[in-house]
Design a protein that fits this description.
By secondary structure, the protein is of the alpha+beta class. It has helices spanning 6-22, 32-43, 55-58, 73-81, 103-111, 123-127, 176-209, 302-313, 320-328, 334-348, 366-376, 379-385, 397-417, 420-427, 436-445, 451-461; strands at residues 86-91, 96-101, 131-133, 147-154, 161-169, 217-219, 225-227, 246-248, 254-260, 263-268, 278-281, 290-293, 296-299, 352-353, 358-359, 363-365. The strands form 4 sheets. Strands 2-1-5-4-3 form a 5-stranded antiparallel sheet.
Length: 462
């Protein structure tokens, strides 16, 4: 804040508020967070002169029950009893979980419909640092008789914002002691959450130790490592796969995730058997694309053909969102991709991995072989391998780009280094059939009596 005097800052905040009411240009924004709060209220259809929030803002039918902060509300209410303020505890969405304190301070927000939604302080959970809001910084004019201080409550288990503690003061500016109080209250809540977390961990550890021997690696419900990793090689937390799904630890061990009491166990598992080689045919030209897995021969739909081509072209893998974008552009739907991947995995088994989606089997494909031949600059082999453009029926932006790039590279290589036989092979493809430069080269380099020269001249005349 650049204003050094509270009255000067108050006048500036009033000017900004009037600009919000009239729609005129603001005389200079006081602070960013109140501006964001005003924009959020305005986006929800709330006007500065509103005296009652609409029900779709204050209603919260989907509030989670029970909330992790619910057991701490009596403790936090004790803070309100010791002060002349109102202490409000909300969830991460700003829905009120509990409130207690000075009745005079609750009268105005109750009339405005803020008993269920602490809308004035919804910026605190998102920003994490403590927030102070002066009276005139609030959009609703009837709230200008109060100031607020808020601090987020961070879950020590997940490091995610659980909610917010907010202290309302009847003064127009938060007192420094109020800011310190709200920070201390949030820290008290986090300390209690940490104590409860450690108690749960200890109960889980005792059940684990009762198993005897070396039953595996004990994880909390959120993936924190509790026991079974004395050297700390796994770190503090591991990503949780689906129960029963095999995963690889940092040290190369294969493990399976199993539910255990209120947490999980990672148990040793044998390495997965090597997947059968995946062979993709018919991706070039107008043939029917097929996949050969081991001895199984599977015809492919266009969509499955496109997905397999994209995964083969991106060996490091693609997320559902990336696959959707490569297939449909901005109109894609990742949910559709997940359904198609599920169907593909049902047909192709363990040849497709997840997180991200990728081909896990050794792969052979006609278009990948074409890439290899382009790198080796062997025009004769290239002419034999190139039977036509990559998936000519596909409208996928990424496949069209790859298709055009392959076509240009093949044509350039054959024109520079190819024999008449190579050029004639290219002239039988959809791209080469009416290529004027290729046909002129054939008509002039082949003997006049060669049937291929005659065919080239006929196409040129046509």
């Amino acid at each position: 804040m650049r204003c050094t005097h509270l009255d000067a800052y108050s006048r500036r905040s009033c000017g900004v508020h009037e600009a919000a009411v009239t729609g005129e240009a603001a005389p200079g924004e006081a602070r960013g967070l109140p501006s964001a709060s005003r924009r959020g209220f305005t986006g929800a259809g709330i006007e500065p002169e509103t005296t009652l929030l609409p029900r779709d803002v204050t209603d919260s039918p989907d509030a989670p029950e029970p909330h992790p902060l619910q057991p701490l509300l009596p403790l936090l209410a004790h803070i309100a009893d010791e002060s002349a303020h109102v202490v409000v505890v909300t969830d991460a969405e700003g829905r009120v979980l509990g409130r207690d304190g000075n009745p005079d301070a609750t009268r105005v927000p109750d009339r405005a419909g803020l008993a269920d939604t602490n809308g004035g302080m919804t910026t605190a959970p998102a920003t994490r640092p403590p927030v102070r809001v002066y009276s005139e910084e609030q959009l609703m004019r009837m709230l200008h008789v109060q100031s607020r201080s808020a601090a987020p409550i961070i879950d020590p288990d997940t490091d995610q914002v659980l909610g917010c503690v907010d202290i309302t003061d009847t003064a127009r500016s938060p007192h420094p002691a109020t800011v310190a109080l709200v920070c201390a209250t949030a820290k008290l809540a986090e300390t209690q959450l940490a104590l409860r977390m450690h108690e749960r961990d200890e109960r889980l550890r005792r059940r684990y130790e009762a198993l005897g021997g070396r039953p595996g690696i004990l994880l909390s419900p959120t993936g924190r490592v509790i026991s079974g990793d004395p050297l700390g090689t796994l770190g503090e937390r591991v990503p949780l796969p689906a129960p029963g799904e095999r995963m690889i630890l940092r040290d190369g061990r294969f493990v399976l995730l199993e539910p255990f009491s209120d947490g999980y166990l990672l148990r040793a598992a044998p390495p997965p058997s090597a997947p059968a080689r995946l062979r993709l045919h018919g991706f070039l030209g107008s043939g029917s694309p097929t996949a050969l897995v081991g001895e199984r021969h599977l015809p492919l739909s266009l969509r499955h053909t496109e997905i397999l081509a994209l995964l083969a072209l991106h060996p490091s893998g693609l997320t559902a969102e990336q696959l959707s974008f490569h297939l449909y552009g901005d109109d894609g739907n990742p949910g559709t991709i997940r359904v198609e991947i599920h169907r593909l995995r049902a047909e192709l088994g363990n040849t497709i991995g997840a997180r991200p989606y990728r081909l896990t089997a050794p792969i052979e494909a006609d278009f990948l072989e074409l890439r290899h031949l382009l790198a080796s600059s062997d025009p004769a082999s290239l002419a034999r391998a190139y039977t036509g453009p990559l998936l000519p029926r596909s409208e996928s932006p990424e496949i069209r780009r790859e298709r055009d790039e392959l076509e240009v590279q093949v044509r350039t290589c054959l024109l520079l280094r190819g024999s008449p036989d190579d050029l004639w092979a290219y002239a039988q493809t959809s791209g080469g059939r009416e290529d004027l430069e290729v046909l002129q080269r054939l008509a002039t380099t082949l003997p006049a009596t060669d049937h291929r020269a005659a065919a080239a001249r006929a196409r040129l005349r046509a």
